[in-house]
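Contributing new records

If you add data, match the layout below exactly. Sequence lines come first and carry their own label; structure lines follow with theirs. Keep one chain per record. Anything else will be rejected by the validation script.
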Amino acid sequence: MVLDLKKRSMLKNLVGELKKEGITVTHANMEGYEAPYSIGRRRPDIIGTYPNGQAVVGIVRLGGNDITSASGRQEIKDLATRISQKTHKIIPLYIGIPASATQDLMRVLKEIGLDKKDNIRIRSY
């Protein structure tokens, strides 16, 4: 229950940040939004668009197995390498994470070869 509350709070923060950056959030796993749809075989926590039509996805991870497990790694890799059908560019991936798990996330990104990707944007709370 506490984890649920933490995830909801981080999701709300990430949605707020995306809006401040000019992104229109169209889907989110929170009240007031339609649930996100699957992108390939993954369902992000947030889907939105920049004013130019470029898609954006966001996920909230709590750390631990959420990012270090095989499925956690694969999900990050899948979402971080999606190409927009509209713009043919790699879709930006925002990852909301507790500040205490940032180092683990950086290590995992390095291990899966994504640490140099400029479409991955980490927001810690």
